[in-house]
Give the backbone structure.
Amino acid sequence: MPEPLNEDHEEELRSAAADDRIWQFLGANGATASGFRDWFVRMVTEMASRQRQVDVLRTVSAGKIVGAFGFNDIDVFEGRVTIGSTWLSPYAWGTNVNAEATFLLLKHLYEDLAVNRCEYFVHTGNVKMLGFLDRIGFVQEGVLRSRFRLRSGEICDLAVGSCLGGDWPIVKKRLQSRMDRKRFHLAVPNSTSLANDRAPSSATMSGLGACFSKPSSRH
């Protein structure tokens, strides 16, 4: 099942991250031992302070961790989060892992936590990710120029887009149409619920609700 990131995952996750292609459009370089350690410590620290939620992704077939998935920039009052902390090992490329993880995350955010807006910021050169988000129904809202510094030091443009609560039914159907109904790549409890559209077990993406457990108000 998707598991909330913890320190016990470090060694296995480091192995999954050890491919330079994963980090091409990201600010960290988790393909190196020192770069991964910096990324991992930051993720664990920000999870502890509820600034971010990260889950590791484990496959059914091999039982191995193949990436991480989650969100950050959590605004409880506005009901808004940003998809982030997200990458996949090449082992999972070309499978339905990305669609399944996205489905589980968004279903929990919209149907269990009543989030209003889920947004993304993606390097404009990452055409595969942008294409995936467009096909499932996220709306690209524009481009932020010179918004993000890559690990190389280059300043790049970011495409920004979102899925609102009202968009979720369409996005949900499109994700379901992309998933293999006979075989699930991610190990999740009661995985048949993905095909039958029943709510996943409360243990699924179990760490996500903690970030929303203390609603706040603005003055």
